[in-house]
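Cont'd.
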Amino acid sequence: MSKNYDVKDLGLAREGKLKIEWSDKQMQVLSIIKDRFKKEKPLKGLTIAACLHVTSETANLLITLKAGGATVVTNASNPLSTQDSVAASLVKDYDIPCFAIKGEDSKTYYKHLNTVLDYKPQITMDDGGDLIHLLHTKRQNQLKDILGSSEETTTGVIRLKAMEKDKALKVPVIAVNDSDTKHLFDNRYGTGQSTIDGVIRATNVLLAGKNVVIAGYGWCSKGIAMRAKGMGSNVIVTEVDYVKALEAAMDGFRVMKMIEAVKIGDIFISATGDKHVIGIAEMRLMKDGAIIANSGHFDIEIDMASLEKVKNKKRTIRNSLDEYLMPNGKKLYVLGEGRLVNLAAAEGHPAEVMDMSFANQALAAEYFVKNKGKLENKVYVLPKALDQKVARLKLKAMDISIDTLTPEQKIYLSSWDEGTK
Amino acid sequence: MSKNYDVKDLGLAREGKLKIEWSDKQMQVLSIIKDRFKKEKPLKGLTIAACLHVTSETANLLITLKAGGATVVTNASNPLSTQDSVAASLVKDYDIPCFAIKGEDSKTYYKHLNTVLDYKPQITMDDGGDLIHLLHTKRQNQLKDILGSSEETTTGVIRLKAMEKDKALKVPVIAVNDSDTKHLFDNRYGTGQSTIDGVIRATNVLLAGKNVVIAGYGWCSKGIAMRAKGMGSNVIVTEVDYVKALEAAMDGFRVMKMIEAVKIGDIFISATGDKHVIGIAEMRLMKDGAIIANSGHFDIEIDMASLEKVKNKKRTIRNSLDEYLMPNGKKLYVLGEGRLVNLAAAEGHPAEVMDMSFANQALAAEYFVKNKGKLENKVYVLPKALDQKVARLKLKAMDISIDTLTPEQKIYLSSWDEGTK
Amino acid sequence: MSKNYDVKDLGLAREGKLKIEWSDKQMQVLSIIKDRFKKEKPLKGLTIAACLHVTSETANLLITLKAGGATVVTNASNPLSTQDSVAASLVKDYDIPCFAIKGEDSKTYYKHLNTVLDYKPQITMDDGGDLIHLLHTKRQNQLKDILGSSEETTTGVIRLKAMEKDKALKVPVIAVNDSDTKHLFDNRYGTGQSTIDGVIRATNVLLAGKNVVIAGYGWCSKGIAMRAKGMGSNVIVTEVDYVKALEAAMDGFRVMKMIEAVKIGDIFISATGDKHVIGIAEMRLMKDGAIIANSGHFDIEIDMASLEKVKNKKRTIRNSLDEYLMPNGKKLYVLGEGRLVNLAAAEGHPAEVMDMSFANQALAAEYFVKNKGKLENKVYVLPKALDQKVARLKLKAMDISIDTLTPEQKIYLSSWDEGTK
Amino acid sequence: MSKNYDVKDLGLAREGKLKIEWSDKQMQVLSIIKDRFKKEKPLKGLTIAACLHVTSETANLLITLKAGGATVVTNASNPLSTQDSVAASLVKDYDIPCFAIKGEDSKTYYKHLNTVLDYKPQITMDDGGDLIHLLHTKRQNQLKDILGSSEETTTGVIRLKAMEKDKALKVPVIAVNDSDTKHLFDNRYGTGQSTIDGVIRATNVLLAGKNVVIAGYGWCSKGIAMRAKGMGSNVIVTEVDYVKALEAAMDGFRVMKMIEAVKIGDIFISATGDKHVIGIAEMRLMKDGAIIANSGHFDIEIDMASLEKVKNKKRTIRNSLDEYLMPNGKKLYVLGEGRLVNLAAAEGHPAEVMDMSFANQALAAEYFVKNKGKLENKVYVLPKALDQKVARLKLKAMDISIDTLTPEQKIYLSSWDEGTK
């Protein structure tokens, strides 16, 4: 058992181990990679610091990395997402140092960030870019040790590309988020299902017949819109990008400005990667009983600070459901304190999508080793061949066989001299 | 506070009261009826025994009946569906005798059934027909006191119609289930959402891309099929009725025999009202990892008895998720011990649909009083005008206005002499 | 070749025969009945007058009736729905007297109605009730000859029930429309697809992203709403029935008054069975470019008379597409002169659904013979066993096998003494 | 009136003009560009040869280019897609030389290709790359005159990228297809709707309940799958790309090898851009009555040559519907001779999507002029700002307003130092 840890209660380890094993059963791609890593030990001698949501799926990634020969240490990328039982099991059953307590305060959160960096990692993994940010601001002396860093989420990638553009990026980065087998699946099917799950667990309201307003129409918000529609809601989309807005309209959704949507919406879900998408002016116009959730990475999509300031009264109704009495007498309901609703009120992405995302993470770590010294301080995407590989393994796990090109078809596709007969 | 009760812990009352209030906010039709009942006291002097799922929505029905002047007493219609906090609050905050403990054993269950009948009710309410059954078998002397009994669910109505056909029915019954504003909504939108919710809470598996086999294509199973499709599953339907099977096929679902479906299904949900729909022969053919749930009223749709007998090993993985190691080495996963998955693993129907179902229940109680002495020992449906009324109030709560027929249109619809010009 | 006929051009018979054969290939239930009729001749000696849409599907019904031994004569139930090539082939290839010309004027239409009644039928078949209406008004002396009359459509059934209520009905009627295998399929899947087909053929506009307003949420309009949604439209429903309106809202559609919908709708489709659902006041408020179609049986759902009166100018843009310049300068586009758009602008219901509807028609004719003298002058529905039979044959044609109840299950379903264990 | 033309019948011009005007009413983005071109004349002095489907939508593009000052000449990019009335109107009403006759044979097709190049164009527009191919093979001396060439379709772009890779490309090319406002809309919503339309017009079969097999899961095939599902079909997808196959599975479709799908499919639609996707081995295994259509650009996705060879008998049943009697006694039905079904059996993409595609074409022509001398012989995509512009104009035409970023939000999105609080 690892001696270094900060978890809620090691006594929860048994429950955590069952969770980890249940996830493992759904993560068949990662499982195949783990078996190969066990034999090949491609990460031997390395220390990897992973600042990810501490869930049973992440546990299986960490176990895979360890199987590959690495020393692995982890903390939580979000104060609300930690599964304390998994954290306990990582320490007790898998001997992986873990620093994560559900609901930890901001000070503890930053202490944990620093603790995992004290392990002197050569590879870091982020979900939102907090490790990389800390390395570039207060721990710049460690930057030289870093082979590479991988980033899980859209929000983090936006941040890293801004750094790259400013020439502020000092390590090679792989945007795992930008692999097709990650963002086409995790962001859409994973966020879609788990966000709806979070809303239902927190409120138990009926989605059928509700006006559900979704801010954004990127991959995550597309997934949420698709699922809300699938549950019988009347979906309204808000956007700032003309092409995405048009896509939403053509997909049959109402598209309008947020300031109009707030007047008719029953449930609001923001997933834009942007700030104050639901501001206090919008909240003042909402109907009595309106429900507000955030499914974007950071807790700033809803302007919670202003809401706390203007409210007359606040009380907690259920887990992850707070009632705010507004000065106009209406009651608004905020889920999970405005943090990622699928983690705060549900269990995050299902293991099946994390399987692919984390297969990419594991392959990214291996890629840093294989390409040591060859990578610039840029934001990279994993080669398409690895995407095809991950998808192939997943299809196999689903017992699906597909066609392959015939030699004749391959020639046809690469030629340009066969036309209308 | 009621002195007569059997609940888990009165200390849970505060949590229960918040739940009841939260449901009340979504139950605007019942709320309007409650306000009228308060003034009119149509149930004055009556005792009503309600054997329903003891949830926050039911609490609001009971509170409404009490507001109408009745003495109300309740027990649970299903051992697994009780919300202990709600039971506590009913006793402590609303002075309603309640006999229900989540997970109570069969003996306690039957004791509670008898206890509520000891209150000498004039009206009984069932969800599955257990009170009415007890009255007709072991407590026949009380039958003469009964003004009428209302039944909430399809399964119970099937049972009552069998009794009516056999001339065994000795009291007037209202099949609340057969009101349009009940079965078209509760069974479809309510069961649909809450069953999916139960499956996700118990397993956290991704529904997208899964083969979900749904037994039955009645209102409940239609709702489940619709929602599973809405979550991205590939839905397979099994049926014994040719018309319903054809409807499922035309709705784009695969339709096949269960014995074929078991070979390819990832998740099985039975909602037929029938027995042993998923038998042990079927379970032996399932894939490793198959997940099995019941959404029918009684816990006999899945042949749990045989499964317990043939299994090599059993362990609990998560709440409501049991792993059965089969003699063939495969692992099957049963949710909520084969009981109603939306109650065992989730919170039952959302308040918005129970609002309409329970509005019908409240109106049924009033109907028994108003029609005292006029009803035969038959299974009745509430008049269509009450259905229209419930729907009208619900639309109002949703802020939706609709058209009304013009005098000219009314004449046209009742005439038969205007044709192709 | 029949000597009595009034069709456009017998030279079209070859094209018509190919159409009839193509439909026959999709009408496998009717085909099985035809084979049985050939052997059993249940309709021997009878004359049947069929006032139906003269399409290739109807042709196969008529051929089936003739195979059963009947003398068959037909005219069109709608001036715009006749397929002239089919009419020609009926006369030339199948020796069935036919009186129907696409676009025939009102006078010819009524002449044809009278002509088929001149054949002294014992059974009549209606689609909208025109034969039965004529028999009850101007040809009452023939009523005594009638064994029974069957009615195909909702509109006709509404009319007949009004007659029954007024004690004005003088013959037994079978509401074929009310068979499950008719209205659950033909009205929903048939009208749904063919209405969308009619709108697209007439306009070639993109449905994705359009606001499509559907008047009514009965079986037909439900089908249209489902398909419009399936094509990417944002669907708005208008209703006068509270339960149906609520159902539409819970299905995720916007529900509002027509007078509100006209301001935002791009395409309007009425399918209510009622009159002036889209009146001139509504049309005056529509956007420039609005498209208006009727999918109800009679051409009075849109107030065409008033539109013709107030318009500044009218011109035909394409087949079935007329442009009306309104006094306010806006242009409105009406499809198929406000008549049934799926017949005027497309080919009516696909053969697969007519297969079941017409199987019911054929069985209704047989039912009149089998129950000669036993039927009252009421509106009957065919026995459920015939519904199951039709559905069973259809499933067989689709190569679908379903489960059957085990003896144990049969006992369970008919018993009422097995409950929660 | 142009003196140089080869069209079917100038007498059809009136019908064609109505069609062109009707399309113009749906093409509001192109209309705005046309108004600007009229004033600015950006294409003055240029000759543009457009080898596109000669439809009413294309007519509006050509009219726009002419309004911009260009001399415009056109021929058909597909022998079956020409609308003869539109061709006539182009010549007679708009003085645009046109060389296109529906059903022209291969020799005439190539003659027309050469004719338009005889006009010595500086800009060419292709839909499938036939002009560019001819320029690079038999008319290389004209290459030096070419400012640039734009390409409309995926198939053409694949061809051009193969040429670019082989260093065989001798002119700058803009892949209009690769603009977001083209392929995300035209390929998906346009091909989706019009392919379904083509299948229905050619067959009038019911799509609900049918097994529809779609080859490919690119943008076009995604659109077809989405719409087939929307019509109630049970959709099966075949693919050769693992990521796309996985996406199809996660979207709830069955995914399998074509050789398996042929055994259960009722309708087959190929849209892959590849050759012999449905080969003769596959056709031999199909069910009696199977319907086969191609929605890919070239008529080689179905191996028609082999089918013609092995068939026992062939006859035409309806427009665009040929019956093939196979040696095994089964009948297969091929739509539109295996050519693009949405053009052969329907009217091609609706004007609303062509509006955006052709807005991009018009802007591409302007881009060649503005960037004269600056472009290499490569395949370019139009700048994203033009995409946003086209989408913005389209949303305006749809009366939709969207949000804009606040200054605070802009800063946030470009910064990287704000994280979890």
